[in-house]
Each structure stands twice: as structure tokens, then as C-alpha cells.
């Protein structure tokens, strides 16, 4: 057994979130591992298709739900294309959990504003469910989620569930032109959706994930609302291979995304060299 | 030398070019120079230690060099063939580079160790050179030195390879290539390996396994050599770059000889002469597929 | 008594015993393809070794992190996938007559290999290996081991350190492994011999010190603060991004991970040497590349070795062997680059943007 050896997982369920985004629910083949496996929201793993290679995704399901983990991905390269060809019952590999996590304990007793764009909802969704599974330990929960079009929204079933809950303020948005005739949410770019739906920042953490351009334009909105950079959390992606600090690939300056991240505050990111 | 230095100064002062790519003294001998300041033109040298083919620096994908601006480049006749190759294959436009050709009497195989050109110290590639007076140039400098001595080593190695059976040659190259660590330094140093995505780097499908194994190493090197057939100018940059000291130049030369025999073609410094494997002719009799 | 006197015959018999017992003994030998060059290769007897000729072309790295290494074998079955493990214990081996720069590099790389997660493949080989360093007499103007806090006199990471003297060697035992290797061999050495060994070590040191001054501790921080300094744009114009430097570097350890089939159902997951100098090293599947040109990639090389690794592990990721400079087809010279950067760092106030 060496540190690069993955756990064997079986695909239990496949959900197509959008035309190009798929979620896999995976169970550990070894019941002993299944029993003991633990992780924290924000951590990631290396998921492999044997014969094709490994790919890096966050763990998209919350640590509060035991017995399975989930990942959501787009088929953009060799391994993700191969993942898409797999069926329920097929075996994949999983190495993890790696990386750091959202500071859940610090966030307890406070309000949380979740902002996500497109597939960026995946790492945030893990924390959202973690929080919702411990709902009474947090104050207000606000979710602002936007995508290019209605079709591009992921976790549609859960969005529906969240919209029904009275203990969540959910604000959905699609880009102008992306709405359908019966669309009831906002029609706005996500940064504008944030501007329109968020008013307060006291005692609130912001957790944001999405395409770089969305983050770039949302941060000033948060800044104006009074969110200090130390209370804005995001997850970074970078090209990874080993996922555990040895292969020398994922660093941004002296920060290793796989070891020091992938969860960072906006303040930490500002200090990094602009090499990502 | 003065001729070259003055020309460089003039070209830079007039703004004809923004950088002169040539040779200078480095800490361990002659190396590539990038002169952007006309007052630094004195650094330029040219002598039998100027082994490196500088044309890789004209690769249009080298952003950090492109940003310097239009270049003048110092070439020997053999290097001029690489310039012709880049023009022929539409990587650079003739008008976008100023070619400063130097008349050449041969270069040393190991400039660090030797100082005089003899048949043992001269580079194997100088044997039977027919471009000592380069024909592709904007400026041609220097006095034509005498013909270089001929280093017989390469011809001997090729002859030995030709005497081998197929199986022996296969064994020979498998052994030589077993040292290949798939670093691809040969590719990066080669002036004619300019593909934006190399076949070896494609993952869908993975045409060639990336690991250092006998089969994958053979596949990689033979593929690269065949992709260079008719295009390689025998500059030996691949061999100089190889950290495992594999005789890559020998493999390339072997294939170049085959191209010569098959297609009566030697890589040349005239961009208008098409390379045999890069051109489609309706009158090609294609006798090999009958 | 710091040194024991080991005769040539004693060393020869030690090698013979090791080989007879099946232990691989690796030493510098004349290269098969070029007798003027030296490679680290297995020997059958001490006479095969060529000490004191020149620095071996490649470092010891390949004996601990091979250019390609299987991490696991997989096989598709009707129930799923079977994984076959690879052993993490390695057969015993002895490295005899290595240089300080090559040996110290192993301990430098130990830091990242043990960071958080323990790389059993690397440490399996480290634990199975006994290292005998030999005082280097082969330095040239490209060496700079003293500048990075080492030197030909350094016994860092060595189990035994040998100084050649008339009739044999003066051997300094550094570790229990070294003691075990000697198995009681070696006689007491006179005071005079002891002193001569020490003198030889410091003489060797002086030969390298002239090449580059010691890199000050503040250099790491200065590099990090000057990440955006425009000098990076023109520091590496002659660099092809070929990665030959990384291949030969004793401390470069970056690797790629790939799966390869050997049949439709089975294959192996491997790790292979890779280099931050290649254009595809950091490219995302979207096509985005955080390091788009060679100047940024060369900056990464310098930052990793002289700023990032020191800030994370307290070590410079370089042992001053000079191989990168000797192989570079473009003529990059690391002592020269360091000299330039040190001069810039010295002349300007801390944190200056120009």
C-alpha cells in the first residue's frame, strides 16, 4: 500500500445536472473504509478511471451524509470523458480527502451568504448541506446562485427543495437571454444578482465559487457591502496531479493549492502572486 | 567580428530590428546572445565555437521573444536551412526576419574542450558541407575560410548501421533509446519542432505512452525523426540538449540519408524548394505503394 | 578519533563481499558510450570504479525516484477492478564514492517527500541505501555547492565520508548504517593523517568558494517580494524550456502521473519525471495556462528553488552541482543568473520594485 493507491468505489447513482455536467454518487467498496471515512466541507479528492488517469474534484456531498460521496464534473479532458462513459455499478478510484476545509466552527452562530456561478455551486453545495444539516447552529442562510441559462443551473432538484424552505433565502438568477418564459427568478449576471438581493454583511461570512470572471466582479460588490476580505471564502482550482504536495505542480507562489487550500480567503488570495 | 558588430549596431540604431540574435561569450564558452541595446553590439562574436543553431528562437510561439520585436539572426549556412524551413512551412514570413549569414569553415564538436579544427575535433555535421557560402541572407559577412576537415565518425557509424540486419538495428536502437527519459528536451531545442500541440502530448487518444518504456521510447523517437524527415538540418541541437546523451543526430542523419536516396532531396536554404514530405504533387508516381 | 584508515584492499574486499551477498553497489564508472564521461552505475568489483575523474553526468536521483515508476497495477474484472500493489521495501544497495552535492540532495528532497504524507516509495529506497561519500576533487568553475550552504567537505546525508590518502582512505563514520557497513574494518589513524584529512576538506572547499558567494538568508524573501519585477522578462531569453536541467538536477523532483494500458483490461498507474520548464506543465483542461511564456516558467524554477522551498522547508532546493548549466543547450548558467539576482538584491533596498 502506498500513498498513491486509491480506494475502490462503486458508482451508485448518476445524475445529469445539465447537458454537460454530471454528478456521480460513489460508495466505498470496502465497508470498513466506508465506516471510517471522514472529511470536512471544502476538501477534494483525486477520482480515477483505471486505465485513463485521475481527475481532481471537490467532494460535492456534505460530511454529514455518511455512506457515500459525490462529485460533479464537466467532461473536458481525457479522464472526465472516460468518467462520463461509466455506468452505475462501475468501479472508480478515489484518493482523499485532501486539502483544507471551510472553517465551519468559526462560522457557527453567524450568518452565511453563499454565492455560486454555474458548476461553481459544487464545492459550495457541500458546505450548504453541511450547514443545513446543522441548521440551528447558524443564523441566516442566503444563497445567490446564477448560471448562463436555466438549463445550466445544476442541482435543480435541490434548488427546488431550497426554494421551499423558509429558513433559507434563495435567489436564483440567469444571465440576460438565458431565461425561459416561465422563469421566476432574477434575470441578471450573478454579481448584479448579489447586488440586488444582499443588503447586510454584519456577522456574515461570504462563501463564493464560480468562474474567475464572476468572482472578479462580485468581490467589489461584497466589498461595498462591507464584507472584510478575511470573511470572504472561496476555493481555488489549479492543475493537479498528486494532490498531496509532492509533484510540484499546483503552487501559486509559495502556496500549494492542494495543501494550503483549496479553501482560501479573499485576503489570502490578494497576497498571492498573480499566477493563476 | 567587427563587421558583424557594426552591422548589428546599425540595424538596432536605425530601428530596422529590435533584437539581434547571435553569439556571445558566456561563462563557459560561446552561447546565444540577444542584443537589444546597440551599445552592446561589441558582445557579438563568430568563430568555430558557434555551434548552436539559433533558429529555434524564431519560433512564433515563444512569447517572451516575440515581445522583443523584429529580429535579425546570425546564421551559418546550415542554420539558414532552418530559416528556410520555417519560411517554407509558413511559420515566419521572409520579410519579418533579417538574416545575417556568416561564411563558415566548420565548427567544433566540443567547443569547451578543443580549439583547433581537425578531422577529430570538427563537428560530424560539417562533413561535405555545401552551404559554407549561404544563399539565404539579407547580409552576408566574413571571408570564406578553407573547407573544414572531414570527421569520418558519422559516416562510419551510418555504414555500420547499414551493414546490420534489421533485427540488429532494432536491437541497437532499442538499447540506445532505453536511456530516453521522455523529457522531450530534443523537441524543445529543435528549430523545426514547432507544433503547438505535439502528437506525443495528445491524450485523446494517447497515441504514444508518455512513460519511459522500450516500446514507447522507440515510438516517440521514431515518430519525431520521421516527422523531421526532409526537414531536419542536422544541427544536432537535439543531441546537445539530450540529458541522456543519446545519439539522436545519428538517427536523424540515417533518415536524412534515406530521404536523399528516395527523393533526391537534401534540406536546403531555398524556401521555394518544397520538401518532399511536405508537398503534394499530382505527378508523384508513388511507386512504393504498388 | 574522527577518521579510521581504510586500505584500498579493505575497501575492495568490502565491495566484493557486498556484491557476493547480492547487495547492489553503485559507483562512478567510465561511461559506456564515452570513456571521458562518468556515470553512476553498478560495479562488480572496486577496480571497476573510476574515482576522482569528473562529476558523473547524472545525479543519484534515479536510484531513489526513477524516471518512470509504477505506483500500482490495475486489472478490470467482471466484478470491478483489482489493484495489485507494488512493494515499498527496496533491496539493499550501497552507493560508493558519490559527491557531496549529489548526496546532500537526497536529504533536501526528503523534506517534501515527508511533508504531511510520507512517500513510502522514496523512503523505502532511502532506508535500503547506505551512502559512502568521497571527497570531491573534480570541481570546476560551474560548481557552487558552497554558495548554497554545502560544500565538497560536507558529509550531509552520508553514512560514511571518505578522504583519499596514500594507500587508501580516511573514513569518517556518520551513522550506525555507516558503522555497520564497515563491519569493524579500518585501523586507527594518526593525528597527522587526521589533520591532513581535515586540511584536504577545507582546501577543496576553498576551490569552490571562489565561484559564487554564499547566498544570504534574505534572498528567499527578496525573490518572493520581487515576483513581479520586470527583470524576469529578459533573464531567460535563451531558455528553450527543454527541461534538460530538471532531468539532471539532483533536487528537481516534480512528476507527472499517468495510466497506461498493457492490454484492454490491465495496465499500470505510473509517475514520471516532469519539469515546470515545459509549456504544458500547468495548463488547465480549459486551455488556460497560469505560466504562459518561458520567462514565467523560468521565474518559477528560480522561485521554487531559492524562495518557495526555503520558506516551506528551510532548505534551498539546489546543491550547487552545476549540471543544469553544463547541459543547457541555450547557454543558461545558474551561477551567472544567481550572481545577477544577488547583485540586484544587494543594490536595491528591500522590496524595491525596480
Report on this model:
The complex is a heterotrimer of chains A (276), B (290) and C (354). Chain A has two domains: 7-98, Beta Barrel (Elongation Factor Tu (Ef-tu), domain 3); 104-235, 3-Layer(aba) Sandwich (Rossmann fold). Helices cover 24% and strands 30% of the residues of chain A. Chain A contains eight helices and 15 strands. In chain A, α6 (190-197) packs parallel to α7 (212-225). The two termini of chain A are 34 Å apart. Chain B is built from nine helices and five strands. Chain B has helices spanning 2-14, 63-66, 77-88, 153-163, 166-177, 185-189, 214-227, 237-241, 248-263, and strands spanning 19-26, 29-35, 71-75, 97-102, 139-141. Chain B has a five-stranded mixed β-sheet with strand order 2-1-3-4-5. The longest helix of chain B is centred in the last third of the chain and has 16 residues, at 248-263. The mean pLDDT of chain B is 94. Helix content of chain C is 33%, strand content 21%. Chain C has eleven helices and twelve strands. Chain C has helices at 8-20, 100-113, 120-128, 176-182, 191-209, 218-225, 232-235, 244-248, 294-313, 323-327, 334-347; strands at residues 3-7, 24-30, 38-42, 68-77, 80-85, 93-98, 129-134, 160-165, 168-173, 187-188, 255-261, 266-273. Chain C is globular and about 65 Å long. The termini of chain C are far apart. Chains in contact: A-B, A-C, B-C. At the A-C interface, β13 of A face β4, β5, β11, β12 and α9 of C.
Q: How do the strands line up in the largest sheet of chain B?
A: 2-1-3-4-5
Report the radius of gyration of chain A as a whole number of Å.
18 Å
Residues in helix, % of chain B: 25-40%
N to C succession of SSEs of chain A: EEHEEEHEHEHEHEEHEHEEEEH
Distance between the termini of chain A: 34 Å
* Largest sheet features of chain B: 5 strands, mixed
Derived from helix and strand composition plus strand pairing, the structural class of chain B reads alpha/beta
Largest sheet of chain A: 7 strands, mixed
Domain module tally of chain B? 2
Q: Helicity range of the residues of chain A?
A: 10-25%
What is the spatial order of strands in the main beta sheet of chain A? 10-9-8-7-11-12-15
% residues in beta strands of chain A: 25-35%
* Largest interface: chains, residues each: A-C, 42 and 51 residues
Q: Kindly report the average pLDDT value of chain A.
A: 95
| Separation of the first and last Cα atoms of chain B | 55 Å
In CATH, the topology of the largest domain in chain A is named Rossmann fold
CATH homolog superfamily of the largest domain in chain A: Nucleotide-binding domain of ferredoxin-NADP reductase (FNR) module
Number of helices of chain A: 8
Q: What's the mean pLDDT score of chain B? A: 94
Uncertain segments of chain B of ≥5 residues (pLDDT<50)?
none
